[in-house]
Predict the 3D structure of the following.
Amino acid sequence: MSAGSETPAVPPPPAGEKIAPVNVAEEIKSCFLDYSMSVIISRALPDVRDGLKPSQRRILYAMYELGVLPNRKHVKCAKIVGETMGNYHPHGDQAIYPTLVHMAQPWSMREVLVDGQGNFGSVEGDPPASMRYTEARLAPLGALLMEDMDKDTVDFVPNYDDTRMEPSVFPAAFPNLLVNGGTGIAVGMATNIPPHNLGEVIDAVCAQIDNPDISVEELMRYLPGPDFPTGCMVCGLEGIRQYFETGRGTLKVRGRVGVETLKGGREQIVITEIPFGVNRAALVERIAELVNQKTPGLADITAIRDESDENTRIVLEIKRDAVPKVIINNLYQLTQLETTFAVNMLAIDRGRPRTLTLKQALACYIEHRREVVLRRTRFELRRAEARAEILEGYLIALANLDEFIRIIRHSRTREEARVKLLAFEWTRAQIEAWRVHLRDEARLVNGRYALSEAQVDAILELRLYQLTGLEIDKVTAEYQQLLERIRDLRDILAREERVLEIIKTELRSVKERYATPRRTELVPDAGAMAIEDLVANEPVIITLTHAGLIKRTDLSQYRAQRRGGKGVIGATPRENASPEGEATDFIEHLFAASTHDYLMFFTNTGRVYVERVLEIPEMRRDARGRSIANVLELRPEETISALIRIPSRTDAARQDVTWEQPGYLFFATRRGTVKKTALVEFANVRKGGIIAITIEPGDTVIDVEWTTGQDEVMLITRQGMSIRFAEEEVRPMGRVAAGVRGILLEEGDEVVSLAVVRPEATLLVVGENGVGKRTPFDEYRAQSRGGKGIITMNTTERTGGVVGALAVRDQDQLMLITARGQMIRIPVKDVRVAGRNTQGVKLIDLEEGDRLQAVAPVISEAQEDDVADQAAGASR
């Protein structure tokens, strides 16, 4: 347009139309907000009350109207989709059929709402068959969502074309939002709610009803965390607690992997569960791709087989010398065998999107069910009162039968008879006789009973057979039952506690019928590798030699022998030997444990290291072992003086509470110093160890025991002296404390053993020449800490110096270890009980130049069987 030209005028609007100027930016903003709210409210987000999106609700309601209930035959999915699309959800079958399929897939829904028949896809991502081939009906829990919907329990709204009415929400007899979770992407917001176990959610609802102020910690006793339909493991409980408290959190989800041993000792890795939402075929393809690329950490995989049917089983063959734990750790890091689930508990609450905590989600469901129960009760009360009114009219007619028949016979029309009956008046005697049957005194108007129009109509409809005596009795009985029912329904409406009790009763009934065991295991996050999940909890023996070689050996490789036998070789000593024929290495420590336990290694210098038993190298009975330096970061001057097994413990939420167990660690040194420190002080031991007790120069730690704090302890010296005193005489001290005097030693003497007094046990004392005895603890009187003590063994050349002392029971067994590695396992009951000032009997035949080095307890064969059974049960 040239400069100075005029703007053309806007043509006038056609006749009868009006044009109004608008701001384009404001109009776009308004339209987009309307679109956004439509997507949020009517498409993408579930309702907090029934846990359903509108599309899911409409499909289920269409199935309900079609009558495809759990006890009916399946119908074609095409019919269901067509009914839904034509009546309630006009968005095309491409939106409806996938939603229907999703509600029927057991790997997508924790509790399926639709019972599908035919090809509904697979966890590998295979698509379902066309809807003209598949069939479906409501699953029991899907029908349960709509239970009592015909009793005015929920509001109905017009459908999209105002030709029908559809429910705005379902009564929801179980908390579907938490049970099945849900995902959805709206405009500017998204929801991602994990599924949970039906029985646990119901328990949590009942707990919150009983105690509305219940804390999240207490709720987690009932609902510890999510329960995915594919099983798998959730590692780390902090993410669970976080989304329970805030509505948002992140979960680390891992597949379940095991190691199988084949013939010939070869091993293979087996994946039996995959994380929720992971495509199994894509996972196998990704592993194969990484193996072909010779990715470090996965190069030891030689073959991959997918042996899955309805259950997952992916087999990875590995090289003979490969370490399965390393491969599994790399699989978690490099593939979708480990995923994260970002929780965002966003749902529609009272027409608005809202991020919900666990307590808020439960409270919303409880309030919804409360409203459902109240509305259902009012509906049933109205129906019961209407029926009672009719029966009341029948009884009035029967009580005045002759008069009513006369009125009807003398009436020319039905309407005339109706008017006369409405005006019927009773005598005072009749009113007083009938008063006991009245439900409502208001019916007595101006001295007469006022029949209602409904009662008069029912009287005029009476049939002749209903005038028989038997029918009269049935009417009377039904009327009395209705009166009781009406009183009960009014009581429900009047008392809040009854409403809540009904909610709990109905939920518990659902749990009893439909709850299934938990599939997902919740484990503490132990870092990159939760190895204990791959190792069976089995009994083992830990051995540590004088030269620092450690190993764990299956307990079954040892056999019991009678006292005085030659024993078996427990460890091969070093090839070089001293001129006297004595091996330069020998087994110095032996300990019985289970693979999931913790071992505390106390050194001669007063430091402590903590390691899981399953981290100790596993070797054969006659193997030499591996250097302790490859397991612990020991300092050059350190040797192991004591081992203590700390059994692993978890609480109801499966959190590791091992170090929260009660008790103390009681220390004894060679110079007679003692100290006790609470176990909880050792909860965070670094890989490089920490100080457990401060040792004076020239002294060393000789033993550590786990005590209760009220025990009595004994110190036994090499020259056969002992002292017994109460543990309470030693006050609790911190880790770095040096301790106090436990026994006053003679010149040249030293403490060799620390024993805890057990009333049902005896004290076993063993000399280095293989002589030993048992003495009851009663023979040792209690003394004050710090004295010289009394004799416990008369040491001579025949016995040699005392090498060890233990508190033992008749059912226990002992392991005797010589300097040359000879070992013998004997029952304690074969060792004679003798007085404290005696020498004892021979326990083992020693070869010339050999001597007894140590004695240690070992669990009996009966205990081995019990532990093995428990470990086998736990592994299953």
Q: What stands out?
A: Residues 52-171 form a domain with the Topoisomerase II; domain 5 fold (CATH 3.90.199.10).
